[in-house]
Design brief:
Radius of gyration: 17 Å
Helix content: 40-55%
Shape: globular
Oligomer: single chain
Number of helices: 12
Order of helices and strands: HHHHHHHHHHEHEH
Structural class: mainly alpha
Number of strands: 2
């Protein structure tokens, strides 16, 4: 299911890019890298209409990884810089992930969150928002409540931007998310460069396009349907909450999304199916 959805989304994203729209999709509210009970409640509501996604025959880690890739690995057009060594950029990102001073010892989860929040403002109906433009560099988007704490991730990637000035921020942020998923045990994700950077804050999408963890399943559907996702894809994407942890200051919630962050695993779904929590 996840791989078929991934292929459909790649096709759709190529079409929207050709029309001048933003190429990306998907992420979830004020810490997609972590656990909070409200998100479990939301996912249960969506999952009640998507039981097929919970088949024991599915490989959870691969399904979640491809689901995350759905939101990140989308076509960016034909404007990639020929002078950028993207393999070297990948290696540089992989080299900076491990850091025992940061959370659970990895920058991977917060880089996934950055890529998702940059991408998750996409609107399939208006072809606005999304990762193209890297508009989170500007207020008001960088000050949106859902993006609290992401300045750490953006600052972390500045050293790589200085080493490879030809890469756009939009490409760098999404590639960082892809590399993070792969390095944390996820599948290889097709990623294509070519996103460009917006000139100023006039390109920022309105606040409210990312999921709000305090709301219910109908809100989650509204947000992710706007990006073009189905219920089963929403459930697969929700598994990204296994990565990292919530912090009270940015999100109002605290704690990891699974028992062993940050490797990509099915722990989030085990929490969802076996443990009953209330907000």
């Amino acid at each position: 299911m996840a791989s078929r959805a991934f292929s459909r989304l790649l096709t759709r994203s190529a079409r929207t890019t050709a029309l001048g729209g933003a190429p990306n999709v998907a992420k979830t509210r004020a810490n997609t890298t972590s656990f909070n009970p409200a998100v479990l409640t939301q996912a249960r509501g969506v999952a009640s209409h998507a039981r097929g996604a919970y088949s024991r025959n599915e490989k959870w880690g691969v399904g979640v990884g491809v689901g995350l890739g759905v939101g990140l690995a989308l076509f960016g057009g034909a404007l990639a810089h020929d002078d950028v060594d993207y393999l070297a950029v990948r290696a540089a990102i992989a080299d900076m992930l491990e850091d025992q001073r940061h959370d659970d010892g990895s920058w991977g989860p917060i880089l996934v969150r950055l890529a998702w929040h940059a991408s998750g403002t996409f609107d399939v109906n208006t072809l606005t928002g999304g990762s193209n433009g890297a508009t989170m560099r500007f207020p008001p988007e960088c000050k949106h409540g859902a993006n609290a704490g992401l300045g750490l991730a953006r600052d972390r990637l500045e050293a790589i931007k200085r080493r490879f000035p030809g890469i756009s921020y939009a490409d760098l942020w999404t590639l960082a998310g892809v590399v993070a998923i792969e390095e944390m045990g996820g599948p290889k994700i097709k990623w294509t460069p070519g996103r460009t950077d917006a000139k100023g804050p006039e390109a920022c999408p309105p606040d409210g396009r990312l999921p709000d963890a305090s709301q219910g399943a109908s809100h989650v559907r509204d947000i992710f349907y706007r990006m073009g996702f189905s219920d089963r894809e929403i459930v697969a994407l929700a598994g990204g909450h296994v990565l990292g942890r919530c912090h009270t200051h940015p999100s109002g919630y605290s704690g990891p999304g699974g028992d062993s962050p940050p490797p990509l695993s099915n722990d989030y779904f085990l929490q969802l199916s076996q443990n009953r929590r209330t907000p």
